[in-house]
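Quick illustration, no need to memorize.
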Amino acid sequence: MSGDLIDSDIRVAKTLPSKYYTDENRFRGILKSFKTSWQFVGLSNQFTSQITPVDHIGTLLDEPMVRVQNGESTQMLSNVCTHRGMILCHEQSDSKTIQCPYHGRTFNRYGTMKHMPGFKDVVDFPSEDDHLPSFDFQTWNGFEFTSLKPEVDLEDVLRPMQERIGWFFSDLNYDSERDRNWDIHANWMLYVDNYLEGFHIPYVHPELNEALDKEEYTTECFEHGVLQIGMANENDVCFKPPESSIDSGKRIAAYYWWFYPNLMINVYPWGVSVNVVVPNETDSTTVLFRSYVKHPELLQQGAGAELDKVELQDQFVVENCMKGLRSSSYKRGRYSAKHERGVHHFHRMISNPR
């Protein structure tokens, strides 16, 4: 056995102690790891304005940001005025400038401070500190990501997905009518735990269970995440991978990708559903659902149908686990070596932050 909190051998390992989900100081400490991760912004074609505040990034990274488009160039700028810290943008616009609603400090769309009333006699003004900082920004197949201090290149994080199913990520269209913001009374890690195993599907998701061949459900762990593959039953809709794909000829119903710490990219024959898990408090989480449709005629078929119902079923489980973890009678559990490899991988990552 290793000296790690979560043993590397899943057969002898115990799950995370309940205090990981209930302790406020531990919650705050774990969130620090988000600052070095890549966070999902959106798909390029979903942004219809030149200036768009991206509120969930501010919550995740404790760093308010605004997405700014200048022709073919896109930046993530600080959404905080360099004068007194006021939030600059509260709604999207096509303005040529960004003006603080507090005292009128004005920036161009590249973040350069251009005008400030009442500062005529201020020495050494403006300085570099008066301009808006920008943050790391990268794209992958049209999907946009940002980070405060990335420890690894986005391409390296997403390489397993590119190699496995990169052929699918074209001609995706954002469907705002399918947007959901789910508020859940549970720790964010419980939501991730639940996502990372299909063990519960026969018991929690009867409709989804009918669409999947549970005997062929697989889990693959890689450095920055986990892939689960659900195989379609004989008469259900499935992918048609190209002959060059490792999955050519397989009846795959869904690819469920999770990237550390809080991003889920679900790929169905109809398109892509992205889940961003946003921790609010120890026992409060918001999950953003965003849909990018490729084949609308398949939306109500197979494993990718009835996502709202599946989500509510998951929330019931996760919220009741949160109640149970507060019990004095529960400390830690054990893993199914066959079915909970993804959960085990996540627990090792979260308990041994890089």
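The chain is about 20% helix and 25% strand.
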